[in-house]
Amino acid sequence: MSEAAARGDGVRRANLSRILRLVHLDGPRSRAALTEATGLNRSTIAALVGELVDAGLVEELAPDSLGRVGRPSPVVAPDGRVVAIAVNPEVDATTIAAVGLDRRVVARDRIETAGPPTPEETAALVATHLGAWRTGILRDSRIEGIGLAVPGLVRSADGLVRIAPHLGWTDAPLRDLVAEATGLYTAVGNDASLGALAEHLFGAARGADDVIYLNGGASGIGGGLIVHGVPVGGAGGYAGEFGQNRPAAGGDRRATEGVLEDEVSRSRLLAAVGLESSDEPTLAAALASATAPGVAEEVARQRRILVTALANAVNVLNPAVVVLGGFLATIAADAIPSLVEGVRAQSMPGVADALELRLAVLAEDRLLIGAAELAFAELLRAPSPA
């Protein structure tokens, strides 16, 4: 291939990626809208869309002519039959889902366990579940890969889980174990960082360039950062471990004894309402209906400590938006104004004047959608037929 031909092929591939990414991130768009967004001419857009249709990555839908002048333009949508498998292992359950390129969660199972799974058990569970789905609900799907959202430190270079203390994992080669068990491309990331990515792309932080995301789960509190619109992982991919900070909240002596996730804790909330384990909606309902004074006191205590932790983070990073997910969203849901007021009272003057505190809008899907983005990353970068 000549140098000019190679250069032209590279431009074509880059444009295919642009179009696929646009409809993946923004949803169905008309050919006319894609022409406007990319600056390419109509015939080029038609050719590129046709190539993506032939590759089984997008589909063209009947045009919507309402309110439009002139000939309506066909609508290009990501093909929901292209899916990623998303996995979130936790101390009390492993959640497995199939997420479409159109971001629709087409299948989901929460497998409760008596204790944390081992890395090997996680790989076997994914392989077994995937095998059943391939002959069932996903029999007509193109499975692009597997993304795992793990509550621990994940080395970005090779997906090695350096430590996931609540799972009892140390230097676990999870990526390799799952890839070997399933034969599929596999990627691993920190759960909260993936939650931050999902909320930034599709949820509460969409459109915000400077974001702190805190996720509260069964294994504690993790976080993710978006700075100038770019996810920040740090030198090794370990940035965002807010749960390991020591808030030392004034008036809460016990908060000086442990790190944030020891004191602002899902397990303490479960104990307060008399539950051993639950998913997020069940815990939220139990807290909302509880009448024992101890429950309200525990929620108030956790809010006070959370406010101090958030103020510390805001002083360092000066975000526009803080997003809370998991049980943190549950305890904050009906107290946003007072929490923001508390953060401002403990922040440097001016740093939090325009701060917005938002709840994750992707709810239980946030970690799964984030994990799916890991699995879709290569396809979005270089679209190809199955």
Would you kindly provide a written description of the structure presented here, covering whatever features stand out?
It is a single chain. 42% of the residues lie in helices and 22% in strands. The protein has 386 residues and is of the alpha/beta class. The mean pLDDT is 90. It has 13 helices and 16 strands. The protein starts with a helix and ends in a 5-residue tail after the last helix. The protein folds into three domains: 3-78, Arc Repressor Mutant, subunit A (Orthogonal Bundle), CATH 1.10.10.10; 82-194 and 366-381, 2-Layer Sandwich (Nucleotidyltransferase, domain 5); 204-361, ATPase, nucleotide binding domain (Nucleotidyltransferase, domain 5), CATH 3.30.420.40. The chain has a five-stranded mixed β-sheet, with helices on both faces. A five-stranded mixed β-sheet has the order 14-13-12-15-16, with helices on both faces. A three-stranded antiparallel β-sheet has the order 1-3-2. Helix 4 (119-134) packs parallel to helix 5 (174-182), helix 6 (191-202) crosses helix 13 and helix 8 runs antiparallel to helix 10.
